[in-house]
Amino acid sequence: MDESVTLKKLAQKFPDAVVGTHRYRGDDTAIVTKEKIRDICLFLRDDPDLLYNFMMDLTVVDYLGREPRFEVVYHLYSLAHNRRVRLKALVSESDLTIDSVVPVWIAADWFEREAYDMYGVIFQGHPNLRRILLYEGFEGHPLRKDYPLKKRQPLIGPVN
Amino acid sequence: MAEIAKDLHTEHMVINMGPSHPVTHGTVKFLVTLEGETIVDLDVEIGYLHRGFEKMCENSTWQQVMPYTDRLNYVSPLINNTGYALAVEKLLGIDVPERCKYLRVIACELSRLADHLTNVAAAGLELGAFTAFLYFVEARELVWDLIESLCGARVTVNYVRIGGLKNDLPERFEEKVRDVFREVRRLWKDVDKLLTKNRIFIDRMRGVGAISAEEAIAYGFTGPCLRACGVPYDVRKAQPYLVYDRMDFEVPIGETGDNFDKYLVRMEEMQQSMRIVEQALAQMPDGPINVRMPQVRMEPKEKIYTRIDSLIYHFKTVIEGIKPPPGEVYQAVEGGNGELGFYLVSDGSGKPVKCRVRPPCFALTAAMPRLVKGRLLADIVPTFDMINMIGGECDR
Question: Where is the NADH:ubiquinone oxidoreductase 30kDa subunit domain (chain A) (predicted)?
């Protein structure tokens, strides 16, 4: 099985950090603890059998009511091997921090800023972690499930 | 010279370019720090549009998301439709009929053609080449006529559905395609003559906004901007979806990754898109265009009015929405300016838990400071044109 090389190597290299792996509809997924995320990403980027040189996407999913509540989801692509993998790092609400992967892929810069803006996850070591879509004074993080759909925070204009 | 500079008390000047500047599409602001005309620092601020795409999708049924997807990118909406539909179908684990796949390929390639025509036309205009703009806008209008005849609308186009399509081809579509492509090819040649060897155009584009392949990969570049650096990555070739593996087309690449190479790559891709449409029309089989699964694809109206089981399915899909099994998928398609990926999470209910789109121009816009630092103020215009930023996509 060519596709599971990534998951196998990952589980071998980081037995403590990889909580679980699965394949669903052809997508490889590895669920990892957040402590080693930067090492895992470096390994995925540099190992000659893996070479995940593209960080395609980074986002957060909010599973309100579940512990840990948040998952930081990374979609990686390897140009050399034409493979994709999804990494999911678990982040709990009480400790909303995770290491930034900007040192690994510079593409993470804006994606992490967006995740911070929308979900409030703090990326440690990010060179410029500030809001990207909303203004500095905006209260709350709108993509969280408990942020009301119709809440308004207008800077000018009628108050709600 | 150094002596003179020492005596001159110069200061850096900070200027705001946008968001209402014509080049910045009304949704982006550049905070430019200048020394004379040289860019010392550049800060890109997006977020003047902020559509709240994901929040809207998470509060809609899977089918209601469809019209939001085509507003992501208003110059090639049908590719966004297709990407989302493919992602939901992957989540459901279903496969659409053959004819539907060919029709989607045609819809995607017409959109790509319209996208590149718009991009090159606007880039020409913003550098003063008004004639090239007029010629390509004419070509684009002709392509949009085709898209209009395909899906019945011109501005709010929406053609693809989960599990199928809105309708089959209109009458005499092949004939229309032949006529339009003849005209588009003629206009393409004219613009090629006007721009490709134009001294002014080359001077503004050549060597500006260049980036190496390694850096482009690190920044997450995809699409024509990556291919201009010499990396032949195209989702249609690397991980074929629909029937792209049956199509004979080439992936044009550049060498230096500068703006002129991006322009050349786009020009060549238009020719390839037209080839693909012609092949798809020639190969297309007859048959149904929708899956026969009333719990996924809505039943035709005449059946809803006459059959009770169809009526029940109709009620259930409209009120509760379709219910994909719990799970998550990522589906990538080749958008007009790069890899367009949909990441969907389902918990088995009628609404998505997460509906995330990976927009190609987000990564490209993030690299703007890298592309223009140390260049002149005027270089922002062609560089920003050639990364083809689309407000609806970039702003999230």
Answer: 32-152
